[in-house]
């Protein structure tokens, strides 16, 4: 399996719970490396553009409202099969359906406030990484 990069966001609910360190530790223990990271507060345009694929969905307004409700931590994770590995560590979108031991099972309460985002394909990873980071902000190790 090839080395990949994926975009991860620790969402406002998990930041508010002081779970940044616990979540990043899970990535590192699973063999993923943080090669870029920043904390920021998204505005409506930045959050809406990020989730543009969901623009017509009924939950879009709530999703943007939630993602702008507090600071987030955005990271690029690098490692073998990083995209699928991150999605596995995250668990299902709805924390009630997330496998035990996954980040969403352990830190998320609802489908709206579900602790983390992860790119879902190589194409979305490429777009999402470029959405938040310039090439000079990514430090391969
Ligand atoms: P994410 O993009 O945040 O990593 O989540 P995901 O791939 O697991 O799920 P996705 O289908 O991309 O949906 C993005 C976010 O929208 C909210 N959502 N609500 N009420 C609903 O049916 C519903 N479906 C999705 C979730 O907060 C999800 O993380
Ligand atoms: Mg998604």
TrEMBL record:
Where does it localize?
Answer: Cytoplasm
Task: Spell out the family assignment given in the record's similarity comment.
Answer: Belongs to the NDK family.
Role summary: Major role in the synthesis of nucleoside triphosphates other than ATP. The ATP gamma phosphate is transferred to the NDP beta phosphate via a ping-pong mechanism, using a phosphorylated active-site intermediate.
Q: What is its EC number?
A: 2.7.4.6
Listed Gene3D superfamilies = Nucleoside diphosphate kinase-like domain (3.30.70.141)
| Assembly information from the UniProt record | Homotetramer.
Which catalytic reaction applies to this protein?
A: a ribonucleoside 5'-diphosphate + ATP = a ribonucleoside 5'-triphosphate + ADP; a 2'-deoxyribonucleoside 5'-diphosphate + ATP = a 2'-deoxyribonucleoside 5'-triphosphate + ADP
Source taxon at top rank: Bacteria
Q: Which GO terms describe its molecular function?
A: nucleoside diphosphate kinase activity
* One Pfam family in the UniProt entry: NDK
| UniProt keyword list | ATP-binding, Cytoplasm, Kinase, Magnesium, Metal-binding, Nucleotide metabolism, Nucleotide-binding, Phosphoprotein, Transferase
InterPro entries noted in UniProt:
NDK-like_dom, NDK-like_dom_sf, Nucleoside_diP_kinase, Nucleoside_diP_kinase_AS
Look up the record and name the cofactor or cofactors this protein needs: Mg(2+)
Q: Which organism is it from?
A: Halomonas tibetensis
Catalytic positions? 117
Annotated Nucleoside diphosphate kinase-like domain ranges read 3-140
Quick one: which residues bind ATP?
Answer: 11, 59, 87, 93, 104, 114
> What is the name attached to this protein's record?
Nucleoside diphosphate kinase
């Amino acid at each position: 399996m090839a080395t990949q990069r994926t975009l991860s966001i620790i969402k406002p609910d998990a930041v508010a719970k002081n779970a940044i360190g616990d979540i990043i530790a899970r990535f590192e223990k699973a063999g993923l490396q943080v090669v870029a990271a920043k904390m920021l507060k998204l505005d409506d345009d930045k959050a809406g553009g990020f989730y543009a694929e969901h623009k017509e969905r009924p939950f879009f307004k709530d999703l943007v409202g939630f993602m702008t409700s507090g600071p987030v931590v955005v990271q690029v994770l690098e490692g073998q099969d990083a995209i699928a590995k991150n999605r596995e560590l995250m668990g299902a979108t709805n924390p009630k359906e997330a496998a035990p031991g996954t980040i969403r099972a352990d830190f998320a309460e609802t489908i709206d406030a579900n602790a983390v985002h992860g790119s879902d394909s190589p194409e979305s990873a490429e777009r999402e990484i470029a959405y938040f980071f310039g090439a000079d902000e990514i430090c391969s190790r």
